[in-house]
Amino acid sequence: MTTRVIIVDDQAMVRAGFAALLAAQSDVDVVGEAPDGAQGVELSRRTHPDVVLMDVRMPEMDGLEAARRLLEPPPGVTHRPRVLMLTTFDVDDYVYEALRAGASGFLLKDAPPADLIAAVRVVAAGDALLAPSVTRRLIADFAKQRPADRGKPALRLKGLTERETEVLTLVARGRSNGEIAQTLVLAEQTVKTHVSRVLTKLDLRDRAQAVVFAYESGLVTPGE
Phi, psi (5° rounding) for residue 7? Predict the structure, then answer.
């Protein structure tokens, strides 16, 4: 199955370089490029990509606002692509807000080419790009800097079983399904089922939002 991708970045050379790299992959089809968030949203509505590579900082409309519009579309718009944020900085509050809005993760622009290709495949498969330690640090840093009203998130936790709460805790600590299975002595398929139930019960889109929720609810605290 081919993954349809669009690239939204205000730097033409970045767009061209990423497009050439991804187009060379047999399982990726680059279906368009846009120089700012507004045009990126319009392009996505028109081409229905599976994954949008979205720069964080752009003129006209930044990547955060564009991601929100794609992930929370207006009535009548059913297409919601996966959004992978691109940033020059390893800690950026725009990225954190994008994760809260439902983006599937982020990638540094200077990451090795193989990482970009792998990231697109991971996100297209429905997973969140949370493996890099820098992502966990970003979420922890901004959860600490922004002590939110944790009442409502904490109440939502009460709907989880004890096992589901354990699984969510480990997801928030950046563990893969295989690592969670080893820790809890469960089959990996069982872990996948628990993760799916957690996302459904908490009305979360993917693991990225689950990690943010776990910090904001107080289930996991920065520095643990």
Answer: -120, 125
